[in-house]
Structures are given as structure tokens and as C-alpha cells.
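Input (structure):
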């Protein structure tokens, strides 16, 4: 990425921005980043509201772009697990500042996280100091 005074070349984003700007992509990358590997139904449960078709399409897209790895096991019943590739892990690390910025931006996330978030590292799950009168 070339910097010319205050200008930044955005060309490197052209290929990946289409993929990671999809509705569930950043959330999926983050979820896989917090778990070693997950199965399809575990992802469905964590990403409340995503349809099976949308998740299937997104997994295929992220796999095609080299961000996630799909491993199938020859078992009965069949088992498939998804994990981040090295590029996916790097992307996950790169979006942490964005998540932290969103946390600080306002407290809107607290309203939704309190009810739905399952992550123990979520700020809404941290013990809040009690106010004393």
C-alpha cells in the first residue's frame, strides 16, 4: 500500500472487499477466529438469523478466496469442519481494531449483546462495577 502524503492506494482492497463486505462474512471470520474449528450447525447456531443457503454460499465464497478451510471426514454420519487458513487468521487479527472501535463508538452493541451474545470475551458479559449511592 503506497502512501503519498495523505493519500492511500486502495487497489489492494479491490479483490477482497467484495468478499468481506458480504452481510455475514466478518462475523463468520470472527467466529471461526474464536474457535479452532466449527461444524456447519454450530456456525448456524452462533450466527442467529442466517439461512442455511446463505451460510453455504458464504462458506463456498470464503473457501474460494482462501480464507477458510473445509475438512470432511469419512465417517458415518459424514462430518465436515471449517477453520481459518493463515490468510483468514491474519484477516481476523486485522479486524480486531475495527471491532474495538465499534465497541467504543457507542453503547448500542450492549443492548444487542446482552441478550444474544454467547462470547465470554464480549464487553457486555464483563462484570460491570456496581454504582454505590
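Output (sequence):
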Amino acid at each position: 500500500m503506497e502512501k503519498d502524503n495523505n493519500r492511500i492506494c486502495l487497489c489492494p482492497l479491490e479483490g477482497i472487499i467484495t468478499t468481506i463486505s458480504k452481510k455475514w462474512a466478518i462475523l463468520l471470520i470472527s467466529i471461526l477466529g474464536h474457535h479452532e474449528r466449527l461444524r456447519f450447525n454450530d456456525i448456524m447456531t452462533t450466527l442467529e438469523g442466517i439461512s442455511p443457503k446463505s451460510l453455504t454460499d458464504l462458506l463456498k465464497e470464503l473457501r474460494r478466496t482462501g480464507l477458510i478451510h473445509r475438512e470432511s471426514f469419512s465417517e458415518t454420519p459424514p462430518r465436515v469442519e471449517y477453520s481459518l487458513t493463515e490468510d483468514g487468521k491474519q484477516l481476523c487479527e486485522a479486524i480486531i481494531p475495527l471491532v474495538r472501535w465499534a465497541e467504543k463508538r457507542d453503547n448500542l452493541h450492549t443492548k444487542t449483546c446482552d441478550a444474544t451474545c454467547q462470547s465470554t470475551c464480549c464487553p457486555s458479559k464483563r462484570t460491570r462495577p456496581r454504582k454505590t449511592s
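Notes: The longest strand covers residues 68-73. Helices lie at 13-20, 25-34, 40-46, 52-64, 86-105, 108-116.
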